[in-house]
Each structure stands twice: as C-alpha cells, then as structure tokens.
Amino acid sequence: MQTAFLTTGKKMELTEEQNEAVFHREGPMLVLAGAGSGKTRVVTTRIVHLIQSGIKPSQIVGLTFTNKAAGEMKERIRKMLHLDVLISTFHSLGARILRESAEAFSMTPSFSIYDDEDQEKVIKECMKESGMLVAAGDMKTVRAFISRCKNSLTISEDEDPVHVDLFRRYQEKLKNYGAVDFDDLIYLPALLLREYPEVLAAYQARWSYFMIDEYQDTNHAQFELVKLLAGASENVFAVGDPDQSIYSWRGSTMRNIMQFERDFKNARVIRLEENFRSTQIILEAANSVIENNEERYEKRLWSRLGQGEKIAQFVGGDEREEASFVAGEIKSLSLQGVSYDEVGVLYRTNSQSRALEDELLLNSIPYTIIGGISFYQRKEVKDVLSFLKMAESDRDFLAFLRTVNLPKRGIGEASLAKIKEAFEAQQLGIIPFLKQIVSGSAALSLPKKQREGLVQYIQAIDGLREKRGGAIADLLSFAIHDTGYMQFLKGDEGFEDRQENLNELFAKGLEWDMKGGGTLTTFLEELALKPSSQEAEVGGKVRLMTLHNSKGLEFPAVFIVGVEEDLLPHVNSRGSQERLEEERRLFYVGMTRAKEKLLLCRCLFRSIWGQERTQRASRFIREIDPDKLVKAGKKERAPARAEIAEEDTGETLEGAYRVGDRVIHKDFGVGEIRDVQLGSLGIVYKVYFTQDRSLKSLVAKFAPLKKL
C-alpha cells in the first residue's frame, strides 16, 4: 500500500512503512532501512512534515556522514519548502559547537583543523621530544591509540603509559598550535557538554529534534554527543541498517544500533524492507548471504522490479584472465547501450586494481579509481590553503613550516627547529614572534640572510591578512601569485597539472563568493571536512573501488572480483566470528549496489605478495542458492590452464587441501602444504616435510596424506 504525501503542491508516494516513520512525532524511533529502501526520502519528508506541523526549522538537526549526503538532503528540503534546515555531518556540527564555545577550552574560534598528514607531523614531534625512535609502525600504533581514546571518550587505566604520555603531549601541542584534529571535532564537544551543564542546557533549548542517517556507522563519542543534546525528550530519529555496518576499523560500533531500544526507552522500531533499486534475484541472493550472520535485526529485502537476470559467476585461471573477462564484459555492455559510468567494479583490497587497470587500458576503456587522492590533498592545493591558514590563525605552526620556504628563503631545518623551540616557550603569535626575531629583540638570533628571508615572508603574510575580510577569491589569488608561489612552481616538472589544480581552487573561491558562502574561517572549515579520498562524481568512466568505498553508490551493472577465501572474507578475519560477520556484511553491501546485473568473479590461482597461490571459492558464494547463479565466460576463448587441467582429470580444486594446512604422510611424516596446482594427473601438492627438511611434489590421488 502506498500513501500520497503533499508538499507545496506536489505528491510524494510513500509506502505504509515509510508513511509510519514520516508521521512519527515525539520520542525515539529506529528505522531499520535496508539497502535501497528510500531512507533519504523518509528523513527529508519527515523534516518537512515536522515543519508543516508547527516545529520551527531552527529546532531541527539532521546528521549524516558525508557532505554529499548532507547536500542532497538540504536540496530536497529546499525544493519542498524553499527554506534551509541545519543538516550537516557530525564533524561539521562538532566544529560549530566548538567554535561557539572555544573559550571553555582556552581556544581561539579560528582554530585550524588538521588532516592525517598534519596529525602525523605533530605525533612525530611528540615522539621525538619524548625520546622515542620514530618508526612507521610505531607512528601507526600511536595514531590508532589516540583515535581510539577520542572515539571512546576514555583512556583505560591499563593502557601503555608511554602512549598515555604521548596522548597528553599531542593534545598540548595541538592546543599550542591553535589546532584540532578530526576526532577532536566530536571528542571535545562531547567533553564540553558533559562538563558544562549551562552550555548543554543552551543547546538543548536550541535544538529539539535530531535525525541521524547511517546510524550503524556511529562511534561511541557520536552516540554520547547525540544522547547529551537530545536530553530528556529523546527525540532521536535514527535511520540505519546493521547489515551495512562495515567500518569497525574506523571506530564505528554496531552496539549503538543493536542497543538502540536499551539506550532510548520506549523507542519504536520500523523496518523498511521494500527495495527500490535491485531486482528480486539479486535481493534474494543478498538475503541468503546475510542471514548467516547472528548479530542482526531480522529483515528480508524484496522488490517490485521483477525477477531479473541470474547472477553471473566467472571462474578464471588467474587475475589476468579475471580482468580480461571483466574488460570484455564491459565492452559487451557498452555495445548494448550501457554507458561506462553505469558500471562499478568492486574489490576487497586496493592491490587488486592493478590487473584490472592494465586490461581496461589495453581495451581503451576509460576508468577512474574512487578513493584515490582527493583534490584538496594535492600538494599545491594544501600549500595555498596553508597560506590562507596563516592569514586566519596566528598559532598554526605547521602552516608556517609548510609555507615559510615557498618560495625558497634559505631557512634550513636547524634554524626552523630553533624557531619552533623558542616559539613554543612563549605566548606571542607566529608573525609577532618572527618580527621580534627580525628586529633582534628576541632571544633567538639568526644569520642575516635568513632574517631577510623572514622579512619577505612576514610581508607576504601581512599582505594576505589585509585582505582577510574580503572575497575568498582575492585571498586565493594573492596566495597563489603575490606570495611568489606560482613563480616558484614553474620550475616543477608537473607545472601544468599544478597550475590547472590551482586554477580549479581559485574557481572554487569564486563560486564560494558568488553563493555568499561566508568567512575565511568557514571556507577553510568546509575544505578541511571534505573527504580525504576522491568521491564518485565522475562521468563517462567505469568506476573502480574497494567494497568499502562503494557504500552509498549504485550501478546498473556491478562486478565483484576476487570472491575467494582469504580475500573475501579477508584472511584477517580468520578465527574471529565478529570479523567474519563484518566481511559478510561487506559482501552484502557490494551485492546490493547492483540494480540489474551482478557478476561475481574469482580465480583458481592468484599472485599474492609475489607468490602464486591456489585460491578457493569464497564461502559467501556457497551461501547463495545455486539456482540464482549462472556460469559466465565466452565459449570461444582459449581455455585457461586451470580449465585444461580440470578437463583432463575431471578434478577441481574445490575439495583440495589449502596452502598452510598441516598434513601427515605415512613415510615422510608431518608437513605443511606450500602450494596446490592442477596438473595432467590432477591435484598436485607441494609439501614441506619437517623430518628431512625437504619440499616434495605429491599427486593427491596417489599420496597418502591426512590433514592434521
């Protein structure tokens, strides 16, 4: 049953379940929205309904995880009601709260937001100051520790004291630099609202209704922030799908959605199970896979879009043959009228893209990799934005370090280390402190040539600051040209590409000014909160991406490659039911990106870390009803080596022992399977026997091997 919902003269068709969610007014509600079930429509239409029923737009907050999703929701509401509502990412909301209440943390409201690269530089400084050797592995461990503490809002008593000390040093240094990191945008506001009841009361009086998209992706700090802001009314409308929870490595926890009814008393739960994206066969296959997970809410997706085609399954000899099949099928789809940007190729790990890229290039198929370096992470863009940070903040020492020798001014590492040490020991801003050095009134003394270089730098930054209240485009133009940066770049080999990127950045500034985007602070904040990887808005090209990066996207045709044990599910999930279930959810997410065609590809052999290994079909394929699958592959192509072996012997690798299995032989003793191949005599094992430390090749049908 569908219900019509009126908005400014237009009718929107809603299902009975969607309608129930939209017209929910007070108290907590959890909407279990399956993939492709129209959750964005539900959230936006509910906001419209609340406003039409008398709730002030200023009382409503919509929270999402991406700028793209927030933008889409804003635009839909604008079209319905011709007004704006506060819809932002969690981190944008946190930044807003932090800027409004910066004094509570003795911070300036114009704080900088550090990205991953900046964060690593600060951690490296802290590690050096504490006497630690800075190794890449240690850096990764420390970063993960800091992030985990902030996401959980706690530091456990049994944590490594060295890490705890580094956390303290790191936070102090950020404060000294007038900066926060990405996690701080949730961590600090949550602490603020916990510790200052009067501040919390003010926000609770301002905001009364909270709509949260992708609730399954929230971490503990985000949950606490919402719980605090919602207060006693608990007007939390959470939309999410536990079956699409795939970001535990990023700090998100399924606990929030699975325990929603415990966290918010008297919560109502609604299931949206009708899918408006995929055919029934695709959904039935996805249902049969995800139902093998134990930690989930029961639901089954269904569709009115017809049964559709069976899911194609291709088995190649190796990754080159797999990639060749994918390229050939894409060519065939193109001839049938499917445009390249209607095709998504998904894989578990980034390393799998190489063979695919080679074949796509060979076949002149245009492609783009989603998740590559973001425009705003490119060196020349970050350089210019660092100049703007110097115009805005007088404590951002990383911005100073990045820009002081652009162009080169002869200020070396040793001098910069002295400047840093002296700067951190006093309270002046960077430019006033540099002026003291130049005038000779500071305790620190530098050679004449370096002082002259600092004079030039001070003049450049002062010139920028004079334009601070004006147009963003003027600031960008000054930073690009008047500082000497563009002239400096002309010596670079890739100058034309860099120039094009800076022209694009300038165009962004013009667009910002034309839209009345706001101050330099808000401009820098928006760019800092852009995703660190490339988003999917690319036309005319096949899109390659990891399964994680496919979340939220859809394509008429989807290829999932490498559907093999120890790849999907990943080898890291071995021995952990929790990790295995997340791998299954990841596969489920990939399957439900497909609208009409879903092709699952795998290999019998794959090169991993430079070694060719035998691969087995993923257990996830075996969880699909065989009647939903059909074999794929051109009959006229030359048979692969694996197929020749299968035809000659009648054997396959499906029941074979796996690399790493421990076996025993009646004559040779205990050994370990090092390789598995199909030869003219069938399955052949290469086994390393510990008794005589030898590697032997044994034909399976003749070798008396038993698995230990």
From TrEMBL:
User: What positions does the domain UvrD-like helicase C-terminal occupy?
Assistant: 280-552
**Gene Ontology biological process terms in this record:** recombinational repair
Q: Name the enzyme group at the top EC level.
A: isomerase
Q: Which SUPFAM superfamilies match?
A: P-loop containing nucleoside triphosphate hydrolases
Q: Which InterPro entries match?
A: DExx_box_DNA_helicase_dom_sf (IPR013986), DNA_helicase_UvrD-like_C (IPR014017), DNA_helicase_UvrD/REP (IPR000212), P-loop_NTPase (IPR027417), UvrD-like_ATP-bd (IPR014016)
Give the EC number(s) under which this enzyme is classified: 5.6.2.4
Tell me if Isomerase is a UniProt keyword of this record: yes
Q: Does the keyword Magnesium apply?
A: no
Tell me what reaction this enzyme catalyses: Couples ATP hydrolysis with the unwinding of duplex DNA by translocating in the 3'-5' direction; ATP + H2O = ADP + phosphate + H(+)
Per the record, the similarity remark reads: Belongs to the helicase family. UvrD subfamily.
Q: What is this protein called?
A: DNA 3'-5' helicase
The gene name reads uvrD
